[in-house]
Design goal:
The structure is a single chain. The chain has 7 helices and no strands. By secondary structure, the chain is mainly alpha-helical. It folds into 2 domains: about 20-80, no CATH class; about 80-125, no CATH class.
Length: about 130
């Protein structure tokens, strides 16, 4: 892992994998959104508890052998629902990281405007 200044400050890398759901879809389909997220977090729990079985499933997608895929699964820090709520909340490390990056990108004219991070992160949809 590269210990960037952002990581040193927030203990979070700037380029995490993310699950994105369109705000309009979430607003128009709140129950479907919650069910999708519930399934997503249920799958994370399965992967954490069953890395060998998950590796066999992922093998078809990754073309890696099962042992190599299992090692990757075990090396990943899988974030469950309760931890996700903490990270994404306004005092959470991920939230603060995105605020910091938004300010940095705006100040250096890498994006057109300062972003209100509340527009990007909606914890109300979490089950």
């Amino acid at each position: 892992m590269i210990l960037t200044s952002v990581y040193k400050q927030f203990k979070f890398n700037a380029g995490p994998d993310v699950l994105v759901i369109n705000n309009k879809f979430a607003e128009e389909n709140p129950e479907t959104t919650k069910k999708l997220l519930k399934g997503y977090f249920k799958s994370i729990q399965f992967i954490k508890e069953n890395p060998t079985e998950a590796a066999k499933i992922f093998k078809e997608l990754s073309n890696l052998d099962v042992k190599e895929q299992e090692k990757i699964i075990k090396d990943i820090k899988w974030i469950d629902l309760s931890e996700q709520k903490k990270l994404l909340g306004s005092g959470g490390e991920f939230y603060k990281t995105i605020v910091h990056l938004s300010q940095f990108l705006s100040e250096h004219k890498l994006i057109n405007r300062k972003v209100d991070v509340k527009e990007w992160i909606n914890t109300d949809v979490l089950p």
